[in-house]
Amino acid sequence: MTIADLLTIYRPLLGWTLIGWVSGRLLPAAVPTHLGKFLFWVGVPVSIAAFLRHAHLSAALWLAPTIAWIAMLLGVGCAWWWSQRSPIANLHTDDPASPRSPQTRGSFLLAAMLGNTGYIGYPVALALVGPHYFAWTLFYDLLGSTPGAYGLGVAIAARFSDSPPSNRWQALQTMLKNPALWSFAIGIAGRNYPLPAMLETSLHNFAWAIVALSLILIGMRLSQLSALQRLRPALISLGIKMLLVPLVLGLVLWALGVTGFVYRALLLQMAMPPAFATLVIAEAYELDQEFAVTTLVTGCFGLLILLPFWIWLFNIAGIR
Predict the structure, then answer these.
(1) Proportion of the chain above pLDDT 70, given as a percent
(2) Containing domain of residue 115, as a range?
(3) Inter-helix orientation angle 289-316/277-284, to 10°
(4) First vs last C-alpha separation in the chain
(5) Would you state the pLDDT for residue 92?
(6) Looking at the domain assignment, is residue 289 inside a domain?
C-alpha cells in the first residue's frame, strides 16, 4: 500500500472527525447527544442491515467473536498482571484521586480490554477491508465487544467500585436492548431478500452516510473531552490494548494459516482504541473518569500513528 493509498484512507477519517470536532465546539452541547441517539436507534442498525446485504457469510465467521473474547481476556489479564506489579494501582489505597486507587485500577483494566470496534472500527474496516468482508467486523463487535463491555466489563467495574448500582441486571438489559444486535439478526435473515434497485441504492448510500456521521460524532465527543490525567499509566494500558494484544494474537492467527482480508479485519478490530463504553461504565460505577478520558483521547491519536504500522505489517506478510 502506497502513501497515496494511506492518504485516501486518512482523508475521510480525519476530515469527518475534524468536522465533528469543530461542530462540537460551535454547536450546542445537546447536539452530540441527539446525534448519538439517532445513530444508536436508527442509523447504525440500518447501516448494519445494509452492509450485510453485500457481505460474504460463512461458518468460519464464528472465529471473529472467539478472537474478540480471547483478545479481551488477554488484554485484561496482561493489565491485571501489570497493575499487580507496578505502583499504578494499589487496592489498599483509599483516596479516589490517587493514581493508585481501586477506581483508577478499574479504569486501567477496562481501557486495556474494550476496543471501539463500532463507531471507529466500522469506518476503518470498510476503508481497509471493504463491504465484502464487513461481516467479520460485525461478528467481532456485536458478538464479542458488545457483550464483553456490558458483561465482563461491568463485572470488573463493580469489583473496583465503592458504590456499584443495586440492579445488576441493568447491564444485561442494556445489552439486549441494543438495536444493533436486533438489526444484525434481521440483516442476516433478510440479506437475500430482493429489493427494488432504487431502494437498494438508497439503502447503500444511507449506510455510507452513517459511516460519515459516526466519525463526526466521534469528533464531537472528543471536542467535549478536556482533562488528560495520568498519561504514563494510560500509555501502558494503550500499549497492551493497541499493540501487545494485536501483535501476539496476530502472530497466532498467521501461524494458524489465517490470511488475507479476514486476517486484516480481525487484526484491525483488535487494534482499535478504547471504546467510549469505558467512560460510560466508569461514570456509572464511579471509577476514575479522568483516566478513562485520557485513554480515549490518547487512543484515538494513537490509532492514526499505528495504522501505517499495521498496513506495513500487512504488506510484508503478503496480506494485500
Answers:
(1) 87
(2) 60-193+229-316
(3) 160
(4) 8
(5) 38
(6) yes
